[in-house]
UniProtKB/TrEMBL annotation:
Organism from which the protein derives: Dillenia turbinata
Protein name (record): LRAT domain
Pfam name, any one: LRAT
InterPro entries in the cross-refs: LRAT_dom
Domain LRAT: 16-142
Length: 142
């Protein structure tokens, strides 16, 4: 599916954006109301992305680490919004960049959201970084 606009998102969508010239992608779960549950790095200080007053969640990348819930703008950090596509054919999978689609089907949105909220409650300051494997486990396709 690739690039999407924020108004196309639905609760439980697996979203991502590329970082550092496409060297890796940052994944999260869209929970609605413009918010995303995702995991941030815990080991490096970085400059705050200038949101020009549009951020209302109060996220500070130099203080808030581990599993966090932020606004979509903070999750994206100025990058393009993308959504992982599930249930694609094997041929399509071979043509796409790794981590952008899967032949597996995702769990229902409620299950995905419950799992993401549980991680947020139980390990809010976990010393972990979400990988595609972590998000797939949330979606029930590990």
């Amino acid at each position: 599916m690739g690039k999407v606009s924020p108004d196309e998102l639905v609760h439980g969508d697996h979203i991502y954006s590329y970082r550092r010239l496409y060297s890796y992608s940052h994944h999260g779960i869209y929970v609605g109301e413009g918010e995303v549950i995702h995991c941030t790095k815990t080991y490096e200080s970085r400059p705050s992305f200038n949101l020009k007053g549009s951020c209302t969640c109060g996220f500070d990348p130099n203080k808030d680490h581990g599993v966090v819930k932020t606004c979509l703008q903070c999750f994206l950090s100025g990058q393009k919004l993308r959504r992982v596509e599930y249930g694609v054919s094997s041929k399509r999978l071979l043509l796409k960049r790794a981590g952008t689609c899967s032949t597996e089907n995702s769990n229902e949105a409620k299950t995905v959201l419950d799992r993401a909220e549980k991680l947020l409650r139980e390990i809010p300051l976990a010393n972990t970084i979400w990988s595609l494997t972590t998000v797939k486990a949330l979606l029930g396709i590990a």
